[in-house]
Design a protein that fits this description.
With about 375 residues, the chain is α/β, with parallel strands linked by helices. The protein has 14 helices and 17 strands.
Amino acid sequence: MFIQNYPTPYRVALFNCLSEKYDIECLYVDTSPESRKWDLVLREATFKNFFSEPKKLGVLGRSFNYACIPGEVRARRYEGVITLTSYPDFCTMMGVKLWARRSGIPEYLWVSVWRGYKVSSSTSILSSLEKYFLNVINAIFFLGVESAISYSGAGAELARKYCNIVLKGSQYFPLEKKYGLDIVRRQVRGDPPPKFIKFLVISYIERRKQIEYAIRLANSFEEIFLTVAGSGDARYESELKSMASSKNIEFVGYVGSDQKKKLMSEHDFLLFPTQKDSWGFVVNEGLYCGLPVLGSSNAMAVRDLVRDGINGFVFGSYKELEIVFVERIAPMMRGQNICDYNDMSGAAIESMLRYNKQILANFNELLK
């Protein structure tokens, strides 16, 4: 049994592949009803899926969401439970551990990094307290766990503190179709140089995604054409649209897999300016489609997958983002080094395909 927050095209494809050899079931414990938007993805699953029912817990006049393990799951017998650690619902995580312990089911962890992987407090006292509580929570997560698999460097480093066996995985697997997208073979660019340098943002619209960085960049340079795809916080989206003074900025709303693939084939760079992300699957998708990524170092996917100057560029602040555009991207795309862009696009695909066998090898080792 795999326990995770919500299904993604990536995970469905991975588990479909693993289910050819193993009897796999998945329980999704996301407490928000938004997870049901993945019903279309679940229709493609070849393994059995369960959804927990969100419940509310009242404590001191406040209400907290948590997920209950369905009775149908509790009644079944499993040889092991593998829990993804990235979701933030601590109450649910403890409920899963108690159920496994009482049922005598061996526990394993699929280690992402819990939502506090990056301490965000600005003062040293708050920072120290946050680090302390995160260490306590991590120790609880790993209690009684002998083996773990990780798909990020930080996750493997964390697991080594608590586990004797750590299988360092990668976020890749050998399928011709991944993440709900087919490979997009990008058209090789040549002379004359394009009129616009096209940036694409695909993201849930919320403040921690720092989409205002993309708007500021497009406002500052007239050769940039920016497309923002996604939905979410209506107030924040309204603020972004008010900021957009350039006529070369468009908002297209939520996009499905086919629209996403089309957008990725029509743009030059994927821009991922997030303030904080435990991973960021759109980075996988962009690289897989040959779209070099201009990404924030605050995302684990950028730190693990993007090689600066090889398959994309990495920045840490808005000022760094501007410098990367002025000194590296603009000269390359104006035709001075256009072959470098074509090499970068090819390297984006290769950087994903290079590690394709690693994740299956590690999961096979864990599941044996």
